[in-house]
Amino acid sequence: MISSLVTIFIPDFLFRGLEKMEYVTYPFVVSKTIVLALTFVLIKGNSDFLLIPILEIVGNSLAAVISIFFIYKQKIQIQFDDYRVWFSDIKESSVYFFSNFATTIFGALTTLIVGIYMGKVEIAYWSVCMQIVAAAKSMYNPIVNSIYPHMLKTLDWKLIKKLSKLFAIPITIGSLIVLFFGNTIMSIIGGSDFYAAGDVLKFLIPVFVVSFYSMLIGWPVLGARGLVKETTLTTVISAVIQVLGIVILIVFHKFELIALAICCDISEIYLLVSRMFYLRKL
Question: Which InterPro entries match (predicted)?
Answer without folding.
Answer: Poly_Biosynth_Transport, Polysacc_synth
